[in-house]
Design goal:
328 residues; seven-stranded mixed sheet; Rossmann fold; alpha/beta; 2 domains; single chain; Dihydrodipicolinate Reductase, domain 2; six-stranded parallel sheet; 13 strands
Length: 328
């Protein structure tokens, strides 16, 4: 078992502040450093937290790498990271585990697989991939507890009550997730949040798309998807327990992150706003995974989310219902 852990952080992708959020939750942060960044929204919610809410015993982010030296310096100053790595290979040499805090999933395989092949544990930002072949390559590492990937919304504090008391809803007929922007990156938030509550697995997906093509509305933590940025995509996911899950990604609209449950005994709406706690809980599970060698998140949960995202994309492009069995 590993006691003290040195972590490396990798960034950045356009519009994605996760490197700043994740590293600051582990290391604490510098007010002066954040003032030199464009991430005032992150700085604001960090300043609202008590000092006791930062850090994990024996864990530090000690090295950072981004594709831009000036950005690396800003990240290091804001999140109190002592070292800059000259490249990804050097970063892997210097640390016990790596957080790839980039949501441009097109780059994940080329960045993450070489680290995994060297035996380095990795947390990879969501979505892990939108390519079935890459998912097959990642799967063994998920199963052996070397790779973790999810949205922090899986652990959103706002969903603690329905996670603990799902039975109070009776038979859940419908769950609706409503979110800004695009299906691959923002749909992933809703799928992780909803699948983390339901004790059911997805079976099939169909979609309806409307609105004008848009570049989306980047928010803290994510960039708009250039590949599938329709104004509004609605995905209907049939679960094996009979529940219908509907996820609406609305494109460029005011900030919306909400989940609604409709059961035979009660209903409930939950707005997901506390990024700090969601990210901290996610990082805690990654640290536990590294220390124990056992997956803190069931690999099937990650596979279900990614396969649903891929099936939804196929359904949208081919205008048909797609079984998850088609995504191997």
């Amino acid at each position: 078992m590993v006691d003290d852990l040195d972590l490396g952080i990798v960034g950045v992708s356009p519009g994605n502040g996760h490197p700043y959020s994740f590293a600051s939750i582990v290391n604490g942060y510098s007010d002066e450093g954040f003032e030199r960044t464009d991430w005032g929204v992150i700085h604001d919610y960090l300043r609202e937290k008590d000092a006791s809410e930062f850090g994990f015993p024996g864990v530090r982010v000690t090295h950072a790498w981004t594709q831009d030296d000036a950005e690396t310096d800003r990240l290091r100053e804001a999140a109190r990271i002592p070292n800059a790595a000259p490249d990804l290979e050097s970063l892997g040499d210097a640390v016990d585990a790596v957080i790839v805090a980039r949501d441009d999933y097109e780059t994940h395989a080329e960045m993450v697989l070489p680290l995994l092949e060297r035996g380095i544990p990795v947390f990879c930002d969501k979505p892990l991939t939108m390519d079935p072949g890459e998912l097959a390559d990642f799967r063994p590492y998920l199963e052996r507890g070397q790779l973790m990937s999810c949205s922090g919304m899986r652990y959103a504090q706002a969903l603690d009550e329905p996670r603990a008391h799902t039975d109070r809803f009776g038979r859940i007929e419908l769950v609706r997730g409503t979110v800004i922007n695009d299906w691959p990156k923002y749909g992933a938030h809703m799928l992780d949040a909803i699948f983390g509550v339901l004790d059911q697995r997805p079976v099939a997906v169909e979609t309806a798309t409307g609105g004008d093509v848009s570049e989306g509305h980047p928010a803290e933590g994510d960039a708009a998807d250039r590949d599938a940025a329709n104004g509004h995509t609605s995905a209907a996911i049939r679960m094996d327990g009979g529940t219908l899950v509907q996820v609406d990604t609305l494109g460029d609209v005011p900030m919306t992150f909400s989940v609604e449950f409709y059961g035979t005994e009660r209903t409930g709406r939950y707005d997901l706003r506390d990024n700090f706690t969601a990210f901290r809980r996610t990082l805690w599970r990654f640290v536990e995974t590294v220390r124990s060698g056992d997956p803190a998140l069931d690999p099937d949960e990650t596979l279900d989310v990614v396969r649903t995202l891929i099936a939804g994309r196929i359904a949208d492009r081919e205008d048909r219902r797609v079984s998850l069995d088609e995504v191997t």
